[in-house]
Amino acid sequence: LSYYPNQIARFTFIGKMKETLMRTIDTIYVNGRFVQPHGTELAPLFNPTTEKQIGTVRLGNEQDVDDAVSAAKAAFPSLSQSSKAERIAMLHSLHEAVSARAADLTEAMREEYGAPASFIGFSVPHAATAFLHMAETLENYQFRRRIGHAEVEMRPAGVAAAITPWNSNYGFICSKLATAIAAGATMVIKPSEMSAIQTQLITECLHTAGLPDGVFNIVNGYGHVVGAALSAHRDIAKISFTGSTATGRAIFQAASMTMKRVTLELGGKSPNIILDDADLDLVIPQVLAAGLANSGQACIAGTRILAPQSRLDEIQQRLADAVSALKVGDAKDPAVSIGPMVSQKQWDRVQSHIHLGQEEGAQLVVGGEGRPEGLDRGWFVRPTVFSGVNNDMRIAREEIFGPVLCVIPYRDEAHAVEIANDTVYGLQAYVFSADINRAKRVAEQIEAGRVVINGAPHEPLAPFGGFKQSGMGREFGTYGLESFLEPRAVLS
Ligand code: NAD
């Protein structure tokens, strides 16, 4: 196992089974050192492609949170007073450190998520370049500005906490840490407990960048223990959270007691709007790429496909053909585009929604309950397309987090916009049209933080975040940086 050559961390291989190496991750990272947590509880780690346990992680507790917050608090005065140039140098060191182990991260992501190549190909480079994007943002940012007779200074908000979801665990560790450092804020990170192998690797990478002790600290643990302790901690001034809307609500509530600043990046049910002039040869692959990103386990997955009534049959047929042709299986095979669900729990959730869709009266165009043919182990589901979906159905309203697409017919542009906006979410939306001006006209009416026209590529400096219950605040670029800053106006 070439990717764990570690001198630093304490992976202990406790046994070798046929194809699975069991390992124990029994350290957290506090004040520049790998230390054993005070917490003693162990959580199992699984490979979703095989359903086999591949290790255990020892989880931190409230005492570990206190230690990590103290370390971050002690490191804050120095980081907050450091120069732009010093922080840019730190960001470049972090970029180099993370880039150096891209191959190991790829391997770990496959093992822990069964993530398909398309998702890994985006996530791994993006994690490392997050540091460069923040360095660029910082370079161009003015921390002082004059407004009338006031001098306004943007100050780091204080000690920050990051809480990350399983599906982009180390990507969000990188982007949130990059933003905190650019702002001059120290950080305690609570990664997803389901991604401890990736967390361990990224921690090793970040450690080699040689930042001052305490600037960042990483505490594994359950959300209701470590995450809750951070959300309520009196010395944490700012929380940057990515995860489900339900958890975001709990964090927001806990954070309100001490008026923490919060950025909440939450769930979605993104509309994927095909206008009636779209060239389906070009569009169908992009609609599926958006709808089935990371096997549908993505906050931005465009799972509500809005199709014009006039071309409904044609679109449904094309989708059915394309989805039937997708290969499901072990992501080690480059031809595979749909991997497993991350856990048994997630597999059950997707199954129950496929069942529910039929009960609600939607028709299965392709897919359905159960496992794909030939895959008798691994948390694989059948990529599923429902037709005859009404936007009031639960399958159209709830985030399923799996490869389940709902085709919803619309009459005209205004009706498409109405359906697209008829949701509690508003994270991302997709519009496809042969006429860019028409697509832009529709995009301007969509209640979402991002609208992607005709499969345009990601823009890492543009704001990212949700309208409505998809969140609060924005990440990336200047908007992200300012979410870690507090303006102070001095009038003279
Ligand atoms: P989750 O909400 O279950 O967990 C996210 C994190 O919160 C984990 O680290 C978890 O341990 C922690 N947590 C759980 N309970 C907590 C509590 N009471 N207090 C503090 N922390 C707590 O989400 P998940 O299943 O890991 O990730 C999937 C969800 O994340 C989906 O809803 C998806 O849409 C969302 N997501 C959003 C974005 C975005 O940018 N908007 C990106 C990726 C994922």
Automatic annotation (TrEMBL):
Q: What is its EC number?
A: 1.2.1.3
Reaction it catalyzes: an aldehyde + NAD(+) + H2O = a carboxylate + NADH + 2 H(+)
Residue stretches making up the Aldehyde dehydrogenase domain: 36-490
Q: Which UniProt keywords apply?
A: Metal-binding, NADP, Oxidation, Oxidoreductase, Potassium
Q: What class of enzyme is it?
A: oxidoreductase
Catalytic positions are E265
Q: Source organism's superkingdom?
A: Bacteria
Molecular function (Gene Ontology), one example: aldehyde dehydrogenase (NAD+) activity
Protein family according to the UniProt entry: Belongs to the aldehyde dehydrogenase family.
Write the protein's name. aldehyde dehydrogenase (NAD(+))
- This chain's source organism reads Rhizobium freirei PRF 81
Task: Give the shown range, full length included.
Answer: 110 to 601 of 601
